[in-house]
Amino acid sequence: MRQAGRYMPEYRKLRERYDILEMIKTPELACEVTLQPMNAFDLDAAIIFADILTALEAMGLQLSFEKGEGPVIHNPVRSLADVERLGTPAPEEALGFTLQAIRLARRELDSRGLPLIGFSGGPYTLACYAIEGGSSKTHRRVKQMMMSAPEIWHALMTRLSEVSGEYLLAQARAGAQALQVFDSWAGELNVDDYRRYVLPYSQRTIEIAKTGGVPLIHFAVNNSHLLEAMRVAGGDVLGVDWRINLDTAWNRIGNQWAVQGNLDPVALFCDWETLEQRTRDVLMQADGRIGHIFNLGHGILPETPVDNVRRLVELVHETTSSVVRSPSSETTENG
Ligand code: CP3
Fold this sequence. Notes:
Blueprint: H1 9-17, H2 20-25, H3 27-40, E1 46-47, H4 54-58, E2 63-66, E3 70-73, H5 80-85, H6 91-94, H7 96-110, E4 116-121, H8 123-132, H9 140-148, H10 150-174, E5 178-182, H11 191-210, E6 216-219, H12 227-233, E7 237-239, H13 246-253, E8 258-263, H14 272-286, E9 292-296, H15 306-325, H16 331-334
Parallel strand pairs: 1-4, 4-5, 5-6, 6-7, 7-8, 8-9
Antiparallel strand pairs: 2-3
Helix pairs in contact: 3-7, 8-10, 9-10, 10-11, 11-12, 14-15
């Protein structure tokens, strides 16, 4: 999930001087922001500072981040002609700044023995922004196109899945040691629509990405009704949010999968006893399985108390270190 961001004073300080897209497109700055949470907390992996929406910009959509409004696409996709105008550029040409940031960050992280995660948006989530032109509560336009204009939909999703897959593959080649597909808003769909209109494209993205030979995490918010379908898309790790118990999710998808999640980011705003209890609940459900990646269920929120983040990381490490180190524990069977 987002590790860098507005809750960190170091990040806000840089943001006073630079626009977010400027930071993403300057490899030295992107590398610096990637390392900010790594310097502040004892985290186990870094995620490259970028955004899922730069891939849309690379395809010819005009992107800006407006204050108080979030991302805006100024020429959204509404017709087949709009889809046909979209480019499918080589990532090295159009998104080379992030590939370069990955190379820079790897140099720093290697000396600390820490891995780096690359990421891309999943096809449905990219389609949301491409069609809606920004964030949307109802997904009216994107679902309307999906339901009533399948030829436009399939043409768009074909392009998005290729671009997303190639971008992930390029990140693995540049040095990302794991990849994450953020299909954040796919949980908005019922399972039949997901299987019919999204799954084949997510499968394609993941198929291309997996030729990079690194582990892949597939995540969507509110995905408890989609777990079995998302499993079909491929990958190694399924990311879930707090709406489903970790053990329930695991029992449904099977122990050959790793699971990432799922503390409610709001728990970080609570008093320490509450946060501690909720963290222990998540760890209890994971039950020491070695395939558990402790994480928040979704991105860290602005104004999250930094000290709680630090204490949370310490608590997770204290609680899990004995489990991971014990060779005879049940965890090996489950893993
Ligand atoms: O953890 C990290 O630092 C990695 C960097 C990262 C960002 N965006 C930087 C960013 C990652 C992994 C993302 C993913 C992303 N971006 C997603 C998928 C994950 C999720 O949240 O479900 C989505 C949907 C986006 C699109 C996006 N980018 C939105 C909707 C916004 C606005 C959010 C808001 O609350 O205003 C962004 C902006 C953005 N991307 C920020 C960061 C750190 C906000 C900080 C800022 O304005 O400076």
